[in-house]
Amino acid sequence: MRAGSEMTGPVALTLAGISKRFGATLALRPLELEVPAGRILALLGPSGCGKTTTLRVIAGFEVPDSGAVLLGGRDVTELPPNRRGLGMVFQNYSLFPHMSVAENVAFGLRMRRLPRAERDARVQEMLEVVRLPGYGDRYAHQLSGGQQQRVALARALITRPAVLLLDEPLGALDKALREGMQFELRELQRRFGITTILVTHDQEEALTMSDSIAVMSAGEVVQTGTPREVYERPRTRFVAEFLGTANVFAATVTGAAPGGWAVRLDGADAAAALATPEPPQPGRRILFAVRPERLRIQPAGAGIPATVRDAVFRGSYLVHELAVPGLAAPVFVYGQAGAADAPPGAAVGLAWRAEDAVPLADPP
Amino acid sequence: MSARRPHRAAPLLWLAPALAFLALFFVAPLGGNLLRSLTEGQAQDDAAFYYAKLLTDEYYLSVMWETIRVSLITTLICLAVGYPVALFLVRHAGRWHGVLLFLLVAPLLTSIIMRTFGWRVLLARRGLLSNTLLDLGLIARPLDLLNDPVSVFVGLVHVLVPFMVLSIAAVLQGIDRRLEESARVLGASRLRAFLSVTLPLSVEGMATGAILVFMLTNGSFVTMLLLGGGKVVTMPLLIYQQFTMTQDLAFASAMGNVLLLAALACLALQVGMLRRRGMA
């Protein structure tokens, strides 16, 4: 693929066994990742987890120590960034400060030596797509953060890239603008049907914008799945707590229960159930997680005994903070706003449906 | 508004010592110079005498042209030599950054006389360079670089290139590397990315360096005096001769003023060029 050619349709992106070492630190352990053509995958993780390195390997700024980057089945591992036909939006947008908006957007086409007339027409068209018609003559410093973001997007999309790389694209925007842009970006991605990788440390952004999420930690992908799968069935404590809030309990398996295991909670000495396809191993000690919105507060005597520590009104929902005997961390319960709140100090019972409790792979 | 007035006076107060110093040691002598050039010597009868002589006499005009030519060539050499060094310093030096910076500024720590005599020792007819080349059999006869304009440029570039490098490096330091990376992803080769992003963004640094080197060359005479062998005669050298040999102080003053004016004109020209590019 020469820089002059353009991709005809969306292609799948595959990372096969990519590893990268910087000096003594292993930035990426052998890593497998697959983004189907036209889909958007979020690389989610805390800073330093290797998500930016992964993106730089895909872009061609870093050459991996092992493994291959495949674009639509073609090995591009050794190709320089300018020969990969990608689009990229950086966190700070990286608009060229010495060029006007139109010149910025036209840059990729200029590199492809497109005739001037066609270039100008496509720039106008692209500026309309990102809702900035008539902004062509301005400079980046004359635009708001959201406008700069849209120019960066226009510049990346105008070459009709095979894959779009977004590096924390909304990180520099304020909250209100960010939410609007999340939907706008998602809309554009769908419209262009472009295979996209979104690097973010913002779980909400990952949930809102992506078809699938790969959660990374310490240079590894620890779990991949649809946002729903990853949120509802986190495999480890790290995933459960990084993506949303999770209440983690320690327990001992006592036997089988309908659809899963019967367990006995450590400390609280109360019985509970959780859902898993695996056969139970009585006596095994495990950790499991329940999302706060899946917990129910019941009158004292039913479920696991607990004491209300605090109740906080958060607008669209209510947060109860409970103390469960034998559990060091507080348990959070989200309820619908408008529901009666239990007063601090009240003795209550805590319950959940077996299918809402997820066993974690971590050792207790 | 009025409540803020008292604060405005304070910064001026801080400037007072510097202003007083400049008034006493810079403005006053300049004024004296101007007065001397218009009233003393042959200017006693005709105030414009020396200026008319300078601006009409072919010899003096050629010296003025030579001054600008030498300054321009030195500036261009410094730019060509300094830019790659600045780029390396900012982008690739890593932990050697400090060491390189010291090596770069080191020439400025020696006095100009010592440095220039050093070059004389190296470049002389029977000097280190010539002898080494002879011993290696690379040349048949001793090189007489010392009496060649080349040695003037060697001496000037040696001492002035740090100004160029530091001016450019300061600007390069502030250019986000992700800009070049953006260009790469958009299809620019390494060279294209440099030419279309980094180079235009560093124009300001190049201009600052060029102004500095140009002005400093304009005013230097020790290098021309000791390395030029009388072949490179510029205004400062002429002033020096008027002052020490002819002792025509009024004429020397007039030359100094013309040189100053020429330098200011060049400065204005360069600043104007920057303005047009929207850089300053």
How would you summarize this macromolecular structure in one to three sentences?
Chain A has helices spanning 51-59, 101-111, 116-129, 145-157, 175-192, 203-209, 227-232, 237-242; strands spanning 13-22, 25-35, 40-44, 66-71, 74-75, 86-89, 163-167, 195-200, 212-217, 220-225, 247-257, 260-265, 271-275, 285-290, 296-299, 304-313, 317-323, 331-336, 347-351, 357-360. Chain A has 364 residues and is of the alpha+beta class.
Write structural notes for this entry.
The complex is a heterodimer of chains A (364) and B (280). With 364 residues, chain A is an alpha+beta fold. Chain A has eight helices and 20 strands. In chain A, strand 17 (317-323) and strand 18 form a beta hairpin. The longest helix of chain A is centred in the middle third of the chain and has 18 residues, at 175-192. The N and C termini of chain A lie far apart (51 Å). Chain B is an all-alpha fold and 280 residues long. Chain B folds into two domains: 1-39, no CATH class; 48-276, MetI-like (MetI-like fold). In chain B, 78% of the residues lie in helices and 0% in strands. Chain B has 13 helices and no strands. In chain B, helix 1 packs across helix 13. The chains are: A alpha+beta (364), B mainly alpha (280). The interface between A and B is medium-sized, with 26 and 19 residues.
